[in-house]
Amino acid sequence: MDSYRLSLAWSRIYPNGSGEVNQAAIDHYNKVIDDVLSLGLIPMVTLWTQDHPQVLEDLYGGALNDQFITDFVQYADTCFEAFGDRVKYWVTFDEPNDWAGLAYSTIQNPPGRCTPNVIGQMAMNYGACSDGDSGTEPYIVGHNLLLAHAGAVDVYRSKYQATQNGSIGYALWFRWIEPLTNTSADIAAAKRANDFLMGWFLDPIFYGKYPDSMQELVGSRLPSFTAEQIAQLNGSLDFIGLNIQTALYGFETDFYVTQNKTCYYLDWRTDVTGYRDGIAIGEGTNNDFAVPWCIRSAVDYIKEYYNNFPMFITQTGIAYTFNSSEDTLNDEARVKYFETYYTELLAAIRDGANVKGVYAWSLLDGFEYNLGLGIRAGIFYVDDEYNRYPRKSALWFKEMLSSNTTVVDTLQLN
Phi and psi dihedrals of 186, rounded to 5? Predict the structure, then answer.
């Protein structure tokens, strides 16, 4: 591998959210970045992964307040100045489109604000939140995240890019939604799902407005941009990062026939399922399926709707329930996942998809968000004493990335 993707912690660099910089954090990340470079790896650095300082929530409600924009831009500026001489790829936000919905329409992600007991996609109860409004807050937060991104990009381009020669983008969660049937209703429902997930964060940058479907279905609950904000958003990406793992089927559903509580996920008018005629969309369980063709569908979508803008696959991989160290090392299913996904990705690239690189999820087992140590995503197993052991998938990568081996050759090894 020739690149390493890592995230910085805003709360380490600014323990109070803003104000005084913690020099110990700057020193720490300087050592990390220098270590990455010393190994011949190109760092891609993310500024935010759903982890801004709690103090900002306490002071003014976090991303619900436009003060968040100012504070994020200051934090980004500090990072560009401290690390930008060596970092050539910046990601402002990781999966902001996923977080805005999950954190402000469900109880799953902090701060867990939502209208209580909304029943949504897959008949899921989104939680008994104590505060929040699922019909307005996700859109306010998404709006502020977009403006924070644009502000950070403006600072980078005006102060640093000319001398540091880097590029900047963000990484979006892209769960591909395939029409359940070939009816016009389900085709439209799948397109709406992509509008609400991807167009929400891409259309303002590429087209100066939110998707037409969002404007029509959300109406006055959707914030609007000023002319100055549209100008700042315009072109505020050097690349699009795509986190692509899986897919579901989508079909037309009007949730508001039976509910009168507005909610971001209900606004899609699209329900989802992992099954068509009783057959799963891919291998797996709990609606986290391995669907190799979804990675090609996703990059082809960017190719078609966003003029084949430069893309990085900033995350693709799969996690499995952890049983034992013996079982976990022989991860045949993960090898198959990477083999089949990369084969589809190669086909898309050969057909002209403008993909510049791909990052595997993940190098090491981690303490996974919401699920702790119950699942493992690493190509290296990490035990309770933090020792690291290569899984079969790590050995597969070593073979696949060697100079005399191709993905096709590696497919034949197994």
Answer: -75, -35
Q: How does pLDDT run across 297-318, given as a tens digit for each residue?
A: 999 999 999 999 999 999 999 9
- Listed in sequence order, the residues at least 6 apart from 65 whose beta carbon sits closer than 8 Å to its beta carbon are 144
This model's pTM is above 0.90: yes
Locate tokens 């591998």: which residue? 1
Q: Tens of pLDDT along 320-335?
A: 988 877 789 999 999 9
pLDDT digits (tens, 9 = 90+) for 122-139: 999 999 999 999 999 999
In angstroms, what CA-CA distances link 217 with 117, 135, 265, 267? Answer: 21, 11, 11, 6
Nearest CA-CA partner of 343 in 278, 294, 305: 294
3-state secondary structure of 282: coil
Residue corresponding to tokens 């805005």: 100
Question: 251 is written with which tokens?
Answer: 């079909």
Confidence tier at 411 by pLDDT (50, 70, 90): very low
* DSSP state letters, 210-236: --HHHHHHHGGGS----HHHHHHHTT-
Cα distance between residue 73 and residue 66, in whole Å: 11
CA distances, 367 to each of 9, 208, 370, 371, 384 (Å):
16, 38, 9, 8, 12
Instruction: Check whether 211 has a pLDDT greater than 90.
Output: yes
Q: Which residues contact 339 (CB under 8 A, 6 or more apart)?
A: 396, 407, 410, 411, 414
Label the pairing between strands 167-173 and 239-243: parallel
